[in-house]
Amino acid sequence: MELNGLRVSRETQARLQHFAVLFQKWAKAINLVAPSTLDDLWRRHIADSSQIFQIYPEPVRWVDLGSGGGFPGVITAIFLAELQDGWVHLVESNRKKAAFLRTALRETNARGSVHAIRIEDAPAEIGECDAISARALADLDGLIGYAAPWMLGKENCRGFFHKGRDYLREIDEARGRWEFDLLEHKSAVEQESVILEISNLRRLV
């Protein structure tokens, strides 16, 4: 099996397929993603989320903000299972979604844990991390604000944020408050989308 040109092992494929079955089951009862995207689950959500690990395939300590239906946090945790190292801390304040995330991690033997708390409370509970991810959560300025407690003054901590066609405007607005190094990774799934890799974060105002 391949995802975006990445060869996926049989074990990881089985975990992803089991996750997809669980997701479809739970999505009938709670709103995990926009209903209009459910029929395109593999491309729009699973393949899209897998790009995070393709960009940064390291066995590191992740924090996934506003994990929702598990994208990209659970997908990253599934890939880490193959490495038998690294960990994803999924932050999701919605109790029903958090229950789904715990079930998904447990049944796929993924390397992650769920924190059913507000994002603002997460740095004190989780502590330091190496990488931060978020998808469909907030504009870039807001995401950097959430990530700042982990990233400020930490040269090796990186943020990976999915963004759509309006990402250039979001970058300009974020640079009004923050200084950072930026890499733009073009999406292999959505033509006008990118994953923004942020590092060396500094506060301007």
UniProtKB/TrEMBL annotation:
Q: What is this protein called?
A: 16S rRNA (Guanine(527)-N(7))-methyltransferase RsmG
Q: What's its top-level EC category? A: transferase
Source organism: Rhizobium mulingense
The taxonomic lineage of its organism, from the top, reads:
Bacteria, Pseudomonadati, Pseudomonadota, Alphaproteobacteria, Hyphomicrobiales
Q: Which UniProt keywords apply?
A: Methyltransferase, Transferase
Q: Which domain of life is it from?
A: Bacteria
Return the EC number: 2.1.1.170
Q: Which gene encodes it?
A: rsmG
